Records
---
Amino acid sequence: MLPVQYYIGLSVVLFTLGALGVLIRRNAIVIFMSVELMLNAANLAFVAFARAANSMDGQIIVFFVIAVAACEVAVGLALIVEIFRTKHNINIDQMNSLQG
Amino acid sequence: MMVNLIVFFGLALVAVASAVGLLLSKNAVYAALNLILNFVTVSIFFVLLAAPFIALLQITVYAGAIMILFLFVIMLLGAERLSTGPVLPWQRPAAFVLGGILLVEAIYVILFRSGPATEAIAASSGFGTPEAIGDLLFSTYLLPFEIISILLLAAMVGAIVLTKKRKQDG
């Protein structure tokens, strides 16, 4: 195994790309996918530290993060489908009914 | 050691390239496929980090179920045709600046503030196997395990309730 800093550096780069995706993209589904990318980067950091510290706790946490991400994706996509039914559009710039 | 570095940087290149592909692709289906490639690459990293169960869990649940759900919804909504850029013109440069600051700061911390870069101690036998994870899940982490099952039930009920057609009154 390489020193843990390599894996953490990769995790940070992936996290930054996910954060950029959330800030830049306008399609709600692609924003959601960028959030999943950020979660994945955090999972990589957890597993790297678990291996470096020789402790299984990090892997258990990743197990729970994956389960929670699955639930969140199910509910989030149901919400997006519902929004699409009324607005016929998932561009987040159009979702401004609560504005003003 | 050299082989380790080559393998690591090769896979890291694929992971970062697919993440950039997710960021830049105009078609939502291409973005989803790039993300699947990213998940598979990270799963290979998990195998390198002595987490085989988590690696296969990642492929089965993340790349195999969550991304398929994304693809279903993308194709259901016809979201491949993507939209114009942001309404606020300063938003994109500001996002890049902030992302750059985060990256520079994190790389500074990793290079100059972390502990000594030691080779890891050898993993204990049975590290990362399903037996080890099952052992912990049913002893130390029993409560979160049960709560996750309730969370899954709540998510399932929530998704069904949200997408049910409303009954017309009167």
---
Amino acid sequence: MTTNKKDPVLVILQMSGAYDALNTFIPYSDPHYADYRQVLRIPPEEVLAVDDKVGFHPAMAPIKNMYDQGKVAVLQGIGYPNPIRSHFRSMDIWHTAEPDKMITDGWLGRAIRDLDPDKENILTAVNFGRGLPRALAAPGVSVASVGDLDSYGVLTGIEDKQDRTQALDIFGRMYSPMIGSGAVNDYLSQTGLDALKGADILSTAPKTYSSSVEYGGSPFAQWLKNIAQVHIAGFGTRVLYTGVNPGTFDTHANENITMPKLWGDVSNAVSDFYEDLKEHHANEEVVMLMFTEFGRRVQENGSGTDHGSGSVAFVIGDSVKGGLYGEYPSLEPDKLDQGDLQWNNDFRGTYATLLEKWMGVDANPVLGGQFEQFDFIK
Amino acid sequence: MSDNDIALMAHLMRRAGFGAQYSELEERAAKGYEATVEELLNPSEDTHRMDLDLGERYFLEWNHFVRCVPEYIAFRMINSYSQLEEKMVLFWHGILCTADSKTQSYVTSHQEWEMLRRCCMGNFKDLLIEISKDPAMIYFLDNCLSHKEAINENYGRELLELFSMGVGMDGEFNYTEDDVKECARAFTGWSIANNIPGQPYGRYPAQFVYNPGDHDEGEKTFLGHTGNFDGEDIIDIIVKQPATARFLSRHLYNFFVADEAQVPAWMDTPVQDPETIQMLEEEYFRSGYDIRSMLRVLLNSDAFKNTRFSRIKGPIETVIGTLRLVGDWSYPKPGFESIFEEMKHMGQEILNPPSVEGWHTGKEWIDGGTLVRRINFIADYVGDVSYPGVQDLVQTLIAEGATLTPKELVDGCLRLLGHYELSMENYNMLVEHAGKNGDISTNTKGFPGEAAQILQMIVATKEYLYA
């Protein structure tokens, strides 16, 4: 890496609820697809085909455009060993990168510790949304978590400036960690102190930002805008995380009504985000991973699909070598895993690629092992 | 009545309710602890002491509950004297989750909430049957789309995973994927009528219907039992499982006693207080699955009484508790909506759990964003001496003497907030801050503001995050 190149930045988009891989990246010419999906089938002429076999859901046109420009890597057949069809445990596995046992720290939390071992930057990682995803949690790692960037600050209700300064001084001292007060109190102390420092810095981002891009009104679109604001402000943030609310893509029913709207909103927001970055000459150093916790059952249940396994993920950015990675899982009935897509590439291979080839972090200790990497980074 | 009695009552009311002003603590403590527990366990129309009529005249929607249902729920949480009942409805709402973001029918959610109110301290088996027939739940988990010929597993799975047994216990799975499918088969035909879009006729409540023609009559094998089971048979098998006793006991412990590991970790994480959990499990079977009996044993136990400040308050507890403390919203007025925004930004919305798993609790309530929001919200309220509860608190301090030492001021504030306790370091820091100009005269114009600032500093502490 040359010295004048900006530090690589990773944006994670968590599409909670488990989007239906089969109707997101569609094997439209496979006759089995039409058999399994009598109701939910997207007609071939509507699929945004990338070749004679597969293509994007029609509502994902903005992402398909980026694909056509060679900026989208599609990770087909992504999954993890011994698939579990519980949203919570499954998301937990994606967060911790540990399919075999329950652990409390996340893969990005561990990566952040490597990126900023001396905790020089309070804003190395920033989350936007309600609640901190476990992916970002690790002992000693602080992550700013922002619900609304415009109103972020501690004890903002104390109007008298001198009073507030005094109050914040005491607040800072009261949240200083004390020896022997336990892990939870240490966590609370650290969170309080970091919030105090982080808020000061973050609150300046919207003030210096202006853009011709108008994002959609959904919380997800607004959080992506916040991510753009923080990135453009140049605080040295390396990992930015957001997503849709839990359960959003959980299309047990009426999938053909909800999916187009969801993918439309998400795809537009992603496209707006990159337009915004480009306008600020801040696009080349950003790569984005968009994932969900598992795939859905191949056989539709009527108007929706139940929990399955074997999914698809997307890596998007100017530094991405676009194209298809992994294999599309077979739809032959005897090749299915209990009626679900059989995954063929371990999600940790994608994590490893992002960590080593993009972020410059040694993946082995973060992921607890070697995983075959892809070639999707330029 | 000793300070210890009041402090214990403050503890009980933080856990079995949403906290209470000091005068209410005195009133309840005068009746005695066990008598108060019994009163809380046996709510009736007479014990609520709320002017719901006044509310109805203000919130006209309360006549039909097509709108303003979160307002109705929050109003009861703030004003009902039967605090445990409201707390238990919240308890079940966080376990037997449905979300308005999907059901989009307040009138149906209200129906569910009233069912939970009716059943919240009754028999667990009855509650499971009721929730399985609850229209909001049937729609939320798609059981209305589960048919004899095309099973939708959603409800069958969550009934086992999240409503009764949990995935596993002591390192072992509690059921198999086949059990999930068989369970789902047994609930085919349990559906709803009237769940039609709100336009153009407006909402009216969905009703449970049983469609015998759509019920899978075939033989099923569930948890080792074989028979032509329907949903009630399945629930009958579920409530007899040791896993169910453990699951319910652990939830009660996490909600009333001390923060536990999160539900998905229960299979592999041992309970932190095996004796109390065992006591609850035994009471579950002894009483024939009676929730009220379990609560009685729990709230009267030394383990409960002695485990103070070991739960991090949730956002609803924080917001409702603050409003009760300062005496806001004891009657209806405009602007109620903003308190729901507060709860949401702190990470918890009435009628909108983030998923069917409910909310993660304990330290997971707190991150940089939610912490800031929470502190600012409480500090803004207790710092405003125009609220009646804050005024009472200041008047009580004034009545203690014309001059207070810094220590007396801080002690008084901590006591009146419900006998909060600070670490020695933080306590000393506050006393030092309070005494920066020596002793404090209470008969000055500036005193209410000075007292309010101490209150603000207390509610901003780590210690105040706990209940």
